[in-house]
Amino acid sequence: MTGTRRTVAALFLLPALVLLGALVVYPIGYSVVRSFYDQSGDGFAGVDNYKALFTDDGIRTALKNNVIWVVFAPTVATALGLIFAVLTERVRWGTAFKLVVFMPMAISMLAAGIIFRLVYDQDPDKGVANAVWVGVHDTFAESSAFPKAHPGRDSPLRPEDGGFLTKAPVRAGVPVALPLVGVAPDQMPGSAEKAVGARPEQGEVTGTVWQDFTRGKGVGTLGAPDPSELGYAGMRIEAVKDGKVVASTKAADDGTFTLPGKADGARLRLPASNFKEAYNGLDWLGPSLVTPAIIGSYIWMWAGFAMVLIAAGLAGIPRELLEAARVDGANEWQVFRRVTVPLLAPVLAVVAVTLMINVLKVFDLVFIIAPGSSQDDANVLALELYRKGFSEDQPGIASAIAVFLLLLVIPVMWFNVRRLRREVRR
Hints:
CATH superfamily of the largest domain: MetI-like
Helix content: 40-55%
Strand content: 5-15%
Largest sheet: 5 strands, antiparallel
Strand order of the largest sheet: 1-2-8-5-6
């Protein structure tokens, strides 16, 4: 068409064709051939390596997880991109918001994996996810301040149902001493004050519950509050008769408490709620949550990509159509559902298909975020290919996985190319 001779055109295309052949065609061809040979590469294995794709437990888990990835990751990322693009179209700070959402695309998968390995750390003092989760949980269900507290030697208390019960009944007018140990000084409630011995009260049961421990060998008196010892502020005490709670109270900041006369002759119980372990959040990287957690990190990275493409498509929608729908009486939800989304369908399809191709090859995030204890549960085909090829020295099976991944990607790529060509013809 331009009059250029074919030989000149071929010379210009030759470097690209050489690179394409060396970096794409040759590796694909070699992988196909290698997938039919055994571990050594000398013996012909036939389709045995491909049979392993459906019989090996690790590969089957990886295949199941890939299905989860393909179904949920592109769908959620595309949906969020659509929501962000539509909602930010009408606000003045929409450009700044889009910049913030798109910024994770500038981070490599390796860096994102390291970031989210820290985000999902089990310790609420380190992991952001559990810090937020524990904060919300503790707002509605307060944790105990004394999870490690327990009676010391020669204590008047004995264990019962996760708590502790006095060995003998208590009497009105006779102060009760309930010494405990096991709480580190820095874990004591901030309101705790120096423990004091309770005063006897006529017709009432009084006592003190406190940390009966003073630093230093031979310092302090067991069974009696010392000047440096703190009371168990807020400790719940119950008076129990015949298995029923007849009275209850909470210890003051100095550990003292008072129960009414009906507690006379009862046993005092420190219920198990006083010693409930602190809530440490969810095990995000445990076997049951590791795959959703990693998918969440992927969505964090790629929702911005979807948003930018959808926003570009949204900018090309004729505003007359939207205004006409509003004039006809459609509310904003109806305009979005019946006009905006159908007009954006080609863009949404391109975004979703592109992300599907991308998640079929996901490797970095799973390899970095999933700890060794749960990596088998988070396994995907690309990671299993790496493990079979390098960790387990089974290049034949690794090549079969590579060919299988290629076969999975080809239909999606064909669909994407066909749709793009159809759009060009329009």
